[in-house]
Amino acid sequence: MQKGEEYKNTGIEIGLYTLGDMGSDPLTSKPISAGQRIKEIMEAAQLADEAGLDVFGVGEHHRLDYATSAVPVVLAAIAQITKRIKLTSATTVLSTVDPVRLFEDYATLDLVSDGRAEIIAGRGAFVESFPLFGYDLHDYDALFSENIELFLKLNENERVSWNGRFRSPLRNAEIAPRPLQGQIPIWVGVGGSPESAARAGRLGVGMALVILGGEPIRFKPLIDLYRKTGSEAGHDLEKLKVGVTGHGYISKTTQQAKDEFYPYYSNYWSYVNRQRGMTSGRISKSDFEQMTGPNTALFVGSPQQIAEKILQQYELFGHQRFMAQIDIGGVPFKKITEGIELLATEVAPIVRRETSKAKNEQVV
């Protein structure tokens, strides 16, 4: 697809997300500043938009080794240099943000972007935001439950009256501004928790499933549970959307992709494990070879290999969206831009064509 070319996508949506980690390049030991990282994220989003990808996500962390703590600000900046790509958090740590402020921020983003704002909400794999914003980690799940229920109410009503446990009551409060879309699309990020999958279904929101490795079939029970719970709660199955997210790296051949990505992927897990207080070292080359096998969920390979993996998952899940994280471990920005081009011009056309066919066959 050429830059600026219009298309009508009837297959699944394909996009990218970043967490803004600031790992040094393991081959050069060259560090990156927060300012440069954010500039590169903005440039990547602009390239993804111009190349015809569907969605771009930015994740939230509150650490010195991550650049994107104020996600709505970054997305608003991206909105000014893009035209059509959807802009989502990936994820918002909903347990430690006031739902009213969150709604106002994303409703404003929706207006700024002409109706492209979305939210993926989660409880957070990192917990530094709890003490930072004055919340008790013991309320980890209760905060999330209360905040998402309040957010959904704010999303539906211009005036809200509400009582809860963790914040002051609302008495016929005006909830402004209202988003251009009418309501802000919201998804719940789900790792491996059946409780999270069931909650997303019960609430009737989208489910963004994080699959970072292993065999994808292990996650099918979560999707089945999500749809079953949603249907039992009275929600239209057509509106229960599933997104799949995962790590990826694309190069001209699968072997080249593996050779290039290995030092960065090993570096990524080395510093992420340290951040989590774990002592495990780098990934061995043999373990990496197994992790990138054709039947695994790690999207490393040629465009054809990546397309085949996405389509294998589509056969299992019937999902509506795929998002890849390709900027981890200190991967040089030049390689990231090359990956975006390959995803948009070689992977996406195959996936869109084949998933469009599958949808048409289901209709017939």
From TrEMBL:
- Any one GO CC term of the record: cytosol
| Ranges of residues in domain Luciferase-like | 14-317
CDD domains noted in UniProt: Flavin_utilizing_monoxygenases
Tell me the GO molecular function terms.
Answer: monooxygenase activity; oxidoreductase activity, acting on paired donors, with incorporation or reduction of molecular oxygen
The coiled-coil regions, if any, are: none
Keywords attached to this entry: Monooxygenase, Oxidoreductase
Family annotation (Pfam families): Bac_luciferase
Source domain of life is: Bacteria
UniProt KW Oxidoreductase keyword: yes
How is this protein named in the record?
Luciferase
Organism, scientific name: Pseudobacillus wudalianchiensis
